[in-house]
Amino acid sequence: MASPLPLSQLGGGQRRLFELGSARASDELELDKESWRRLGPKHATAVLSSLAKKQLPEVATRVVGFMLENRLEVNVYHYNALISACEKSKKWQQALQVLWGMPGLSVTPDGISYNAAISACEKGGKWELALSILKYISDARLVPDRIGLNAAISACEKGGQWQIACALLNEMSVASGHEPDQISYNAVIGACQKG
């Protein structure tokens, strides 16, 4: 993933985005359309990543909408930042809408896309949905990574599903080839304490 530009390198219009509510974001973007076109996709990635860190999914959604409307390149990094903004704001439904809408926009989700969506489900207390995404990854012949498995285990912990959490811990080391880490073990211990 492209590394985000420091805020000092963003134009004044983009800096003001961080201070805007979602109602004004489109107006601000409209004023700076040519700058967005000139600076390209890495600039958009930096802006969207910053919006994700600031937990502004509504503004990030408007940024992606602006890019689509103006036929600017929208790629997997942009959608990942949008899913991450939703995840950090506990907007699991919006995160899933973005994830499942990506193929219809000719953008293939990657491991980061799925991990952020699983984490959004975990933060939203939707352990069943986290597991369904994990199953989808496996059905698509992708290998879940430690981040996605940890998020699913944490979702099971929050849902009091200690047996499933233990099974996922086993799957992590056996099927996926990833060694469990402190996060993995702590989540399983927490699930067992709740169960």
Automatic annotation (TrEMBL):
The keyword Nucleotide-binding does not apply. InterPro entries: PPR_rpt (IPR002885), TPR-like_helical_dom_sf (IPR011990), TPR_mt (IPR057027). Residues 46-170 form the Pentatricopeptide repeat-containing protein-mitochondrial domain. Keywords: Repeat. Pfam families: TPR_24. PPR repeats lie at residues 75-109, 110-144. It comes from the Eukaryota. PANTHER family: OS03G0856100 PROTEIN, OS12G0638900 PROTEIN. This is Pentatricopeptide repeat-containing protein-mitochondrial domain-containing protein. It comes from Polarella glacialis (Dinoflagellate).
